[in-house]
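Bench log, entry 3. Co-assembly request; chain sequences pasted below exactly as received.
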Amino acid sequence: MTTLTLKNVRPMAAPATDLYIVDGRFAAAPTTGAEVIDCGGRILIPGLVEAHTHLDKSLLGMPWYRNEVGPSLQDKIDNERQVKRALALDPQVQSERHAILAISYGCTHIRSHVDIDTEQGLAAVEGVMATREKLAGLIDIEIVAFPQSGMMPRPGTAELMDAALAMGADLVGGLDPCGLEHDPKGHLDTVFALAEKHGKPIDIHLHERDSLGWFSMQEIIDRTVAQGMQGLVSISHAFCLGAPDRAAVAALHEKLAEARIHILTTAPASAPVPAVKELKAAGILTGAGCDGIRDTWGPYGNSDMLERAMLVGLRNNLRRDDELELALEICTRGGAAILGVKGYGLKVGCTADCVLVEGETLAEAVVTRAPRKLVLKGGRVTARDGACVVAAP
Amino acid sequence: MTTLTLKNVRPMAAPATDLYIVDGRFAAAPTTGAEVIDCGGRILIPGLVEAHTHLDKSLLGMPWYRNEVGPSLQDKIDNERQVKRALALDPQVQSERHAILAISYGCTHIRSHVDIDTEQGLAAVEGVMATREKLAGLIDIEIVAFPQSGMMPRPGTAELMDAALAMGADLVGGLDPCGLEHDPKGHLDTVFALAEKHGKPIDIHLHERDSLGWFSMQEIIDRTVAQGMQGLVSISHAFCLGAPDRAAVAALHEKLAEARIHILTTAPASAPVPAVKELKAAGILTGAGCDGIRDTWGPYGNSDMLERAMLVGLRNNLRRDDELELALEICTRGGAAILGVKGYGLKVGCTADCVLVEGETLAEAVVTRAPRKLVLKGGRVTARDGACVVAAP
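Structure output for the full assembly:
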């Protein structure tokens, strides 16, 4: 089934045409005997890219979790460790449920942060790695070794990070060097040393706001340049780029662009966020993600990156069609470029990772978010009519 | 069909029970021969209340409108008047499409602002009034006479407002007394005089931010008290209550509560918003609405007040179950109280306006937003499986 013809399809909302897939890639001409799928004039876009989530911690498929957690970041971190123990959460099962839901919505690539701490050790990384193998060919999963409970206050965590990277985690994660770690130098030196040792890129959660966030961001920029890691560092959330002092933010945009640091936004409605139009104007690669789905941090989310494009649009006050196309670009090509996906797109020669969406235009597809008629990964059908071809555990 | 038994239903997520509807109201005991509907253990909530929208201006059911409008409020107002002319938009047809969509999502009551200006006169009010009659028994529609293009810069508008109120519009509308009208005294004196003349309540759009909005709000409070209109004035949007100076906002909350002025929020992700938990703590009645749906102002929206509850939750950073229940309360009881709906609720004697929602808990219903299995208005089935029982034109 990786050789087929998509009839009556509108690539990126262009006029209807036929597209040919041969051996999992878009081809200039059909092969004889290829299966034909009538796309009914629907729009085809490349696969949606979930570039910031937490596959290991979703409570999907479990009884409803009654959230009564306190307001601080530390409250949520402590509560999560405790609930995971109490519920005996299985990271393999949960990540499989989560990834299958994402596939049903047209996702073909995920970057997931995965918790590492001195309590659960590498269990979550092992679980998500098992899911990655199990779902190979259906979705690609990148794993960020993520010290959710902090490295500096918990001796032994850095060694676990090191082991996770040796075992197959793809990126080094990090988290609020000041606000949570209380030791920006110690934290960032450790993160960058791990990246150098393992030759792996970096993705750091940065919730710190205003000047505290600017300080941490500058420390990240300096180390990125010093270590020659331009193009290999992402900053997730980057709330400090949503600060009211736009002149200070513009100066940071310039430095981020120069260091080729990428930004990943989840576009939360209740926090300051990077302004996606300004990031684009500054030449900064931007991707997006749903963040955690139905976990102890919050009850929201469904892994639908088309809904995330809408939320990026709502948060950034995008109303014009060209602006909504930018929101969609962030949730497709932006994330793919940051994840370094090779052969991404709808051109001849590209891998046939793609999804049919509903609407007259790309903007309509984003605001409508109808169930996905068809999702392909390397030309293989992974979801039909909003349901993944494999059942969740 | 206004006499029936709802079997195996969970009112407000309570344990499953049977509920009886006799002659359109919840009753203590069944009548013989009543039709029985098995609710499959689903949660029953009272009808969703759309307390701030614009039924006359949606482009639902028309070809996709490519939005290329400029960024200012005046750009959007001018663009809309021009597009309405160019498309020959029919307010009756559009409001019917919009209201039917709302019904399909479990809405039983709508407060709609309806444009009045010197160009289209009362055509939009007449159109929405025709829809109100046509859909009587399926949904209740309240009409706010709304001077979208301003009263002060457009002589003749106040007279049209007067005529609309005489004709059957239910409330006097208003709009940014400073920012748009450039004459707060003239605008508010006119609005309050119309309210006094017709004995009708007021609902004013207030987008003005920070101290400008505080000024206008204080002018509204003063007139409300002077005219003895406590409990009869709503302020929509009220972005100035989302200002960073929380001490100034808290002082206004007190005055609003004293004057029994209600707040209606659409919880936009890109603007400052009233903090719903603070409003509740201050004793201010709060409702919510989707604002315009798929119109020349913006492409978003689907009339789903369960989705709006989620967006209220996301914007206000509500994560705990009790907080999500507040978001749902705002989209049901809060709006109903502001609209002055009599006999609202699920108790014996209340009108059987209600909707089945999916989930183990109310919070799950809000984040899941699954298609509504059943919607009742006065005990009559108005929607099943996400579709209204009457077709849109």
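Chain A has two domains: 4-46+345-384, 48-339. The domain at 4-46+345-384 of chain A is CATH 2.30.40.10 (Urease, subunit C; domain 1).
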